[in-house]
Automatic annotation (TrEMBL), chain A:
Keywords: Chloroplast, Membrane, NAD, NADP, Plastid, Plastoquinone, Quinone, Thylakoid, Transmembrane, Transmembrane helix. The gene is ndhGb. One of its GO terms (cellular component) is chloroplast thylakoid membrane. Belongs to the complex I subunit 6 family. This is NAD(P)H-quinone oxidoreductase subunit 6, chloroplastic. It comes from Klebsormidium nitens (Green alga). It catalyses: a plastoquinone + NADH + (n+1) H(+)(in) = a plastoquinol + NAD(+) + n H(+)(out); a plastoquinone + NADPH + (n+1) H(+)(in) = a plastoquinol + NADP(+) + n H(+)(out).
Automatic annotation (TrEMBL), chain B:
It comes from Klebsormidium nitens (Green alga). InterPro entries: NADH-Q_OxRdtase_suN/2 (IPR010096), ND/Mrp_TM (IPR001750). The keyword RNA-binding does not apply. The chain crosses the membrane at residues 6-26, 38-57, 77-98, 105-122, 128-148, 160-182, 202-222, 243-263, 275-294, 301-319, 331-349, 370-392, 404-425, 465-487. This is NAD(P)H-quinone oxidoreductase subunit 2, chloroplastic. GO terms for biological process: ATP synthesis coupled electron transport; photosynthesis, light reaction; respiratory electron transport chain. NDH shuttles electrons from NAD(P)H:plastoquinone, via FMN and iron-sulfur (Fe-S) centers, to quinones in the photosynthetic chain and possibly in a chloroplast respiratory chain. The immediate electron acceptor for the enzyme in this species is believed to be plastoquinone. Couples the redox reaction to proton translocation, and thus conserves the redox energy in a proton gradient. NDH is composed of at least 16 different subunits, 5 of which are encoded in the nucleus. GO terms for molecular function: NADH dehydrogenase (ubiquinone) activity; oxidoreductase activity, acting on NAD(P)H, quinone or similar compound as acceptor; quinone binding.
Amino acid sequence: MDIVFDTYRSSLFTAIELGVFFGSIGVVVAPSMIYAAFSLGITLLSIAFVYLLFNADLLAAAQVLVYIGAINVLIVFAIMLVGPAPLLPSRPLAYRLLCFGAASGLCLPLVFASTEGLWNKTKLEIPGEDEIVQIGIGLFDRFLLPFETVSLLLLVALIGAIWIARARPEMKREMPSQDKPLL
Amino acid sequence: MLQFAPIVPEAILTISLICVCFADLFQTKKVFYKKGWETIWIAALGLLLSIIALVWRLPQPPSLILGGAFAEDSLGIAFRLIIAMGSFICIFLCLDYFQMGGTPAAEFTIFVLASTIGGMLLSGSNDLVLAFVAFECLSLNSYLLAGYTRKDLRSQESAAKYLILGSASSCALAYGFSWLYGLGGGSTSFQEIGFALNQYPSVPFATWIAFLLVFFGIGFKLSAAPFHQWAPDVYEGSPTPSAAFLSVSSKAAGLAIAARLLWVVFSSLQPQAGQIVQLLAILSMLVGNLIAASQSHMKRMLAYSSIGQIGYLLLALSLEHGQGQSSLMLYLGTYVFMNMGAFACTILLSLQIGTDSIRSYAGLFQTKPWICGCLSLCLLSLAGLPPLVGFFGKTYLFWAAWQGQLYIPTIIGVFTSALSLYYYLRVIRIMFTREAKGTLSWQQIALPAHKEISFSLEKKDTPPLLTLTLVLCASTVSLFSFVIGPLTSIVNDLSFFYNDGF
């Protein structure tokens, strides 16, 4: 199933991409943590619209449910629990320009490569009506091993977080103040 | 069911990881520092079974499973075997070390097992998605291992440093992979990407961007020369068993994915890609061996020496597919035992004299002749002195590089390897000739990291597991040279990476 990029679709696409762009810029430059978290929400929502535009309905729904409904809300909760962070002193302009230059230096080749038509899209498939079936087959075939490895990774990340954060018998002794776990 | 047979070794490790979690949960001893025996044995049993399963899979013909996500070929299996052996030895190193420091060892075995699974999947992965997930599984556990002793500030510092630099390298790797995904026509399989890259009439510049990004990410994991700055600090700060793991298993996994990418995916970039790897190799050999000579801390010295060793291994990697692999595997296989032996001796000595500084090893030969003898054996083998196994590995490697017409890198390799003899011999000379200072027992000087903890361990001068490991490594280092012939023929019989005839 092909997707025709008529003017309607491409203007919609441009608007969504602008949402992704300004949302992600906002995450980095927002003056306070909570604005950055909401910018992240905008980015994630725009990405969900991108999925929708490419017929990946299930992915769009999962993106909204998991990333905005769960993860972003969790981030906002964490910020509320920690309390307002002190405003960082603004970096000098030269430093910011340097960061901007480095970031665009990394991104611009990608833009050029896309406009040059370097990508060949022979293996790309736009999902049709049977999108869910394809995802199911993929999860039990070539993505089975990565999927299981991710669950192992999450298990170990959980154990590691507990290991770093939990008070142990050996830590009952009063610790010097700089001895707090860094991570 | 048959198609899951290639991942049986990883499945065994996963099951033993879950068993370790439960054993830790239900352990009954209330005294925390006595914990760990059960978990150690479960983990060791799992790794042993996994090694047996890998040996069982070794003669199988190459195949792809799970829609091409995982490749089983004997070269990949050899890498997985080396990773599993490194972790097996590392598991035995940790118990005594952590007991003396008053830290439970159960979580350490969990992290080691999980990163071993990550490394083994990385060696067999044939798909960008699996490769990245496995790489992250290996990295995350490495950070946790580096920061394992939470009370130790240096360990925390090294973990934070490693985490930040490691995340940057992971970003580079992910970005490089996304370039590969675009260039390969939207496929994630290594063969299809390699095939698509070969189809371009002239190599697009974007392929070079992808190559450089990917090798930046992997070079960091290997601590090859321009990306090596983290290694000495992390090795020095992290607990010694973690440093041993980082220097062996983690590097073997990085080499495996580097070899597969270089020989399968980037085959259209040869020979220039090989020259870039040679450049890394030359820099690593020079930087590692030159700076190691001025180190006064044993773990820092071993860190720089392992940077030098990765240079030799990269030299074999820069050869073409079919020339370099057997010398690479032979040297890597022997390097595991030499390096693990050196780390085992370092742990044993640091537990007994309470410090890692080389100067404090003075005159130790008079009081601890066996440990010093084993350490000398391992260090001389790392330097590549004739009757020991390191000599044969190195000779074979340099010979293969010479055959591949890498004259200048080979000469630099021989030169730096002669240079390395200086700093290895320096340690040995201090141990054998200097006057012994009044050595204190470990009860008087606790590990610097754990000075605040008063531990009430019964006096045991020779921790049993560590000694066992040491004997295993030292005897392998000295006995392998007698079986180097059969070993070479096994290594020569390893198949190529699965490449589907492209």
